[in-house]
Amino acid sequence: MIVVLKHDPNRAQLDSLKAWLQEKGITIHESIGHSNTILGLVGDTSKLDIDLIAALDIVEAVKRVQEPYKNANRKFHPEDTVIDLGCTTIGGDELTIMAGPCSVETEEQVVAIAKAVKASGATMLRGGAFKPRTSPYSFQGLGERGLEILKVARQETGLPIVTELMDLSQLPLFKDVDVIQIGARNMQNFDLLKAVGHQDRPVMIKRGMSATYEEWLMSAEYVMSGGNENVILCERGIRTFESYTRNTLDLAAIPVMQRLTHLPIIIDPSHATGKSWLVEPLAMGAVATGCAGLQIEVHNDPAHALCDGPQSLRPEDFDPLAKKLLALHAAMKGLEG
Ligand code: PEP
Ligand code: MN
């Protein structure tokens, strides 16, 4: 971190700043220039509050030269993280395909969809039991019963399940879930992130709709700093001025995350677009860009879905798409040699 001091800083304030930094184990390299003095801070600056330093009377500007996330940083962990779910992995050589309804409605529905998506090549079953809905009058999910239904579908198909945790109080119910999803709206619910960091289930963090890459990685850092290294990132579209699509899919997130972090990145083209006919082109684009996997909403009867019908694919539409995605992924691996 570099701290640029104002011209002729107050000596007592400067000494107090230096003493405070040294107490925190930081080594200071002072370089006295013609008009400005610069302090180069060396050591673990990740715990320093940059805004606090910038607000000091004697400080002109502060610049971080190192990212504030350590556990998630590729610099300190060059190898890709591969999450082992027993029957499948996320972030390894296989393309992860999470598919299933937006929300769990009935056992019959979820089991039928799970069987269909598995036959098409899906590697995980998605489905919301606790649903974050914009309106309090919309279907809020089946809650605990929904989790039980997902487990029945897992039993029937062998597909591991990924489902959203909305609140700390629900955590005891998620012990047996394969991947805990933290939804876009909760990406910065820091208490929730801390709690999932202190348990051992893998966690998938969806990007907040207006979150920067760094904010998203800091959310991953919250989980990892608690001891849980099994974190997956999911880009699900961000909010822009465009209103034709539900959100705007940021495909650049794939190569950017691959550069900044070792964590696997999943793309959700369903929430990114809100339209079922856009799911295929964007899913193909995501695989071509090198994502670790996809999360796609599939419903047996989209017209009557209790949530997100317009963006859901029918199993018969998902089937050829899954095959194309797997073929494209295999071709990409072939090109890598
Ligand atoms: C979901 O996947 O069910 C969901 C609500 O997604 P998001 O948090 O990305 O809106
Ligand atoms: Mn949905």
Give me a quick take on this structure.
With 337 residues, this protein is of the alpha/beta class.
Task: Provide an overview of this structure.
The chain folds into 2 domains: 2-63, Phospho-2-dehydro-3-deoxyheptonate aldolase, domain 1 (Alpha-Beta Plaits, 2-Layer Sandwich); 83-336, Alpha-Beta Barrel (TIM Barrel). The protein has 337 residues and is an alpha/beta fold. α3 packs parallel to α4 (144-157), α3 runs parallel beside α10 (315-336) and α5 (190-197) crosses α6. The protein contains 10 helices and 14 strands. The chain has an 8-stranded parallel β-barrel with strand order 7-8-9-10-11-12-13-14, surrounded by 6 helices. Strands 2-3-1-4 form a 4-stranded antiparallel sheet. A two-stranded antiparallel ribbon has the order 5-6. Bound molecules: phosphoenolpyruvate (PEP) and manganese (II) ion. Residues 102, 271, 297, 307-308 line the site of manganese (II) ion.
Q: What would you call the structural class? A: alpha/beta
Q: What sort of overall outline do the alpha carbons produce when their principal axes are compared?
A: elongated
Low-pLDDT stretches: none
Mean pLDDT: 96
CATH architectural grouping of the largest domain? Alpha-Beta Barrel
What are the key terms here?
337 residues; alpha/beta; Alpha-Beta Plaits; four-stranded antiparallel beta sheet; 34% helix; 17% strand; binds phosphoenolpyruvate; binds manganese (II) ion
